[in-house]
Amino acid sequence: MEQDGMDKFPRATTAIVGSATYGMGQAPGLGSMDIAVHASVQALAQAGLTPRDVDGVFVALPDDFLSGLSLSEYLGITPRISDNNRTGGSSFQTYVLMAALALASGQCNVALIAYGSNQRSGAGKLVSGMKASPYEAPYKPMRPISAYALAAARHMHEFGTRKEQLGAVALAARQWAQLNPDAVMRDPLTMDDYLGARMISDPFGVRDCCLLTDGGAAIVMVRADRAKDLVRKPVYVLGAAESTDHLAISSMPDLTTTAAALSGPRAFAQAGVKPSDIDVVQVYDAFTINTILFLEDLGFCKKGEGGAFVEGGRIAPGGSLPVNTNGGGLSCVHPGMYGLFTLVEATRQLSGTAGERQVAGARLAVAHGNGGELSHQATVILGTEETV
Amino acid sequence: MQAHNSTAPAASPAIHPEQQYQAFLAQGKFMLLRARASGRYIFYPRVAEPLTGDTDLEWVAASGRGQVYSVTVVRTRPPEQDYTVALIDLQAGPRMLSRAEGIAPADVRIGMQVQAKVVQQDEQPLLVFEPVTA
Q: Where are the domains positioned within chain A?
């Protein structure tokens, strides 16, 4: 797990010129690929592009292990490079990393990163690619909820983190969702509602867990020299790094420290910025504990202090660190794999198109993805033209 | 090729990780794989030691003593009973996912000393952990 100083990420060499979501919540009558393509053509259109222009395809669908081929076929294109890497919900952060490298080296000129899922209208439950372990399945863990619950229980044991602090994460997410017309859950949520919610896997109740929705998203990346010709406010990719440290929660070395403690510092070093420089944070909140763990591991507060950090509205609208401004996986949308939605929201904030929830003057954003059972972590740092 | 063969380590009995682990469990035995060179125990069973790739492994009887590293209670709808899912740090080193028995789920605590025991579930042997009374 040692880190070396050999990261040669092409900082600000590439930029996001289109970002879109589609079918947020429910998209009945559409397959996962249909939803992904709706988002894709919208994202391309923002940059005046069409599928014909795409020569780099980066995609994962919940139920299609050859989706790099399927999406290309569906769009009628012949990409020069494609990536179907599956690290769970963080796959899309790895696509930004790979697309940046591919664009920088001329392997492709227009990279499309896409996702779609009809899991709510279709399966009605999480469609997971994780194989059942013969050593663990007989104990009937509720996967993935119990895995994250074990991490939360350990965090509470080691640092005295309290249920109300997990609740502060849920409440902040809901308050942001109330400012987002695309968010699925916009009713008010009080601490009493949170504490009274049906328990699922201790310490988690229903309101500690992400939504189960349909939805799709897409972003389009090109080289920075071309970006300015396509859109008024490109969003530049300043850093991107990933790390894997296990698959099943039982093999996670320390349940209170994720591999974001490895991916984060590398991404920040590539970008040449510090956590204190960041204006808006999007982290993959499949469960309330995630936000606390990632704020700690990415360096926004010290290890063990995440519970206290999220209290008092610090990460909610009007707080000093806006986190998950779309409402997150907890209150906006969670169609199985959520990572791309953090990238879309970060892009919107930096391009000044986030509407009522716009963070004034946002110039630097983190979009952090998580995959599996805290297994894979990937951090992307984005910035406006002033940060280049 | 012969040069390679001559430097290969002495062949150890073939390890068939899952099959052999389950067969021992069916005999009521909790066995762990251990790498002969490093002496490190391995769980889940696999054909090579993590990091070193050492394939010279042996099955060793495990004491089954451990400590609860973390625990969650999975809530069910009656008449089903709530149950625990726990991570147990074995004294031998590895961590495993299992369940606490012989104690109310809500009473299982992190740090609790536990002892492995083989039970039957759905006509299959299964390793669970009971609290050790001092």
A: 14-124+211-387
Q: Summarize pLDDT for A340-367 with one digit per residue, the tens.
A: 999 999 999 999 999 999 999 999 999 9
Q: Which CATH class is domain A14-124+211-387?
A: alpha beta
Range of the domain at B37: 2-61
| pLDDT value, residue A6 | 67
* Residues B105 and B73 placed together within one structural domain of the fold: yes
**Cβ of residue A135 closer than 8 Å to a chain B Cβ:** yes
Do you know the residue count of chain B? Answer: 134
Task: Decide if B98 and A139 are in contact by the 8 Å CB cutoff.
Answer: yes
Of A138, A251, A255, which has the smallest distance from its Cβ to B121's Cβ? Answer: A138
- Across A28-47, average pLDDT: 97
User: Are residues B111 and B69 located together in one domain of the fold?
Assistant: yes
pLDDT tens digits, A257-310:
999 999 999 999 999 999 999 999 999 999 999 999 999 999 999 999 999 999
Mean pLDDT of A60-66: 91
Number of domains in chain B: 2
- Do B39 and B75 belong to one domain? no
Distance to chain A for B78, nearest Cα, Å: 13
Angle between helices A288-297 and A163-177 (to 10 degrees): 100
B60 CA to chain A: closest CA distance, Å?
18
Strands (E), chain A: 14-25, 56-59, 81-83, 110-117, 199-201, 204-205, 214-223, 235-244, 280-283, 364-371, 376-383
Pairing between β-strand A376-383 and β-strand B31-35 as defined by DSSP bridges: unpaired
pLDDT of residue B9: 53
pLDDT at B2: 45
